[in-house]
Amino acid sequence: MNETVDLTKYGNRSYVRAVMGTQFDDMPQYVDFLRRSGEEIPQTAAERGTHRPENKPLPYEYYLDPKYVPEEIEKIWKKKWQVACREEDIPNIGDRVAYDVGPLSFLIIHSGENEYSAFWNSCRHRARRLCGDKPESGDMVQCPFHAWSYDLKGRLAWVPRHEEFPSATAELFSLRPVQCDTWGGNVFINPDLDAEPLADALGVMPQHFADCPQEDRYTAAWIKKKVKINWKSGLEAFLEGYHVLTTHPSGMPIFGSTYTQTDCWDDGKASVSRLITPALVPDGWVQGEVSPRLALDLFCNTYGLPLPPEGRGDTVADARAYAADKTIEIHREQNGVDFTGRSISYLVDMHQWYAFPAHFPWWGEGLSWWYNFTPLGESPDECVMEIRWLRPLAKGAPRPPLPRCVEIDFDKQGRDFPETGQVGFIMDEDMENMEEVHRGMKAADPQVARPILATEQEIRIRHFHEAYIKAMGITL
Ligand code: FES
Ligand SMILES: [Fe+2]
Predict the structure, then answer these.
(1) From the alpha carbon of 147, which atom of ligand 1 is closest?
(2) Which of 61, 133, 338, 397 is the residue whose CA sits 20 to 30 A from 32?
(3) Which of 145, 150, 159 has the most ligand 1 atoms within 8 A of CB, as the residue to mutate?
(4) What pTM does this model have?
(5) Alpha-carbon distance 122 to 143, whole Å?
């Protein structure tokens, strides 16, 4: 092991040249890696996906041609369950926000005790958007244009000069509802009133999250980043760990992307997938060059854990055990939550989930993130990526106030906003590919304008394409 390894080499492309030609003969997937090391395997990781998606890569025209945008709006955004906000965004009765997806806008209201309601965000008089870009509050939704007023259940309550609108009854001119339900502290909507219940769209996810309840979390950091890329290729960049070698080389000493396990589930109603990547297991590409102790030091630095004393971290097993113990201590001190007895996997590794069309919750404490993607306006060329850091909340503890949402425009980066910290830094690395992917799709020879997808590393993208093709009713 080389303790004086030059870390800068992991942050540049010359390193990639150095590993060119490397092949792995025996690279175990995540659960096999845990099994070989004799470490506890959490039940969620042991339960492997049951679905093998087809290999029908989506042609680039679906990412580029504006003619597909209205079709996506009709067949996906007006038909599918999607996350509109978190419950903590609207903590008090009367609080409300707008959820915008493409050109659509919905009004999400905390309408009663443990009750949330959602409506088309459009006044029944002359259509003014009722809730704007800032959160609002109060016991009446009053239109800023001519003061038509609706109660929290969307019922028309007052019309100025009502005598001039003899047909404007509450029966006929209340707000138009959409379906609204919650899971894991997320408020979901579905504009299709005939759609099957939310539980059907979540598939196996709730049972896997039963021991990591997302409702017992609060938003500790919040970013919305505008990106010049189609929403589909935006989210695809987060469905695989294959890009780590060149996009996140500085993460390789502490995250073993080459051990990533991918799983897909699909019962015809829910398209759900997951990847798991171990932490403190140097990536296969830097195997033999990064000692477990160095990986542990770097991990502790990145996660704000106390550096280990002499004699700790000499093996991968001990490095993982140390990081897990310190993670328990940090949560006990900072959040009053006791994770004693939880597996190392739960405490330090990355367990990233995805449910079609665009929601990514994360299981465990390794990286307790949350992503969501939405198209922006009617352009196929722009989307918004929303990222939250969800920290655990002790039972009965008051919810910390919602942090400011850091809105990052197209031409700005996470590093322009120091409060985004590590999340912003990693996001910047991913963003460097985005616009170029979109431009590259436009630059492709039309004869070959579709991707080729790896059998395991990119199987979740195959699954996403399969779900998209089905939702859109496309024959390829
Ligand atoms: S458009 Fe809302 S009151 Fe006129
Ligand atoms: Fe990435």
Answers:
(1) 3
(2) 338
(3) 145
(4) 0.96
(5) 9
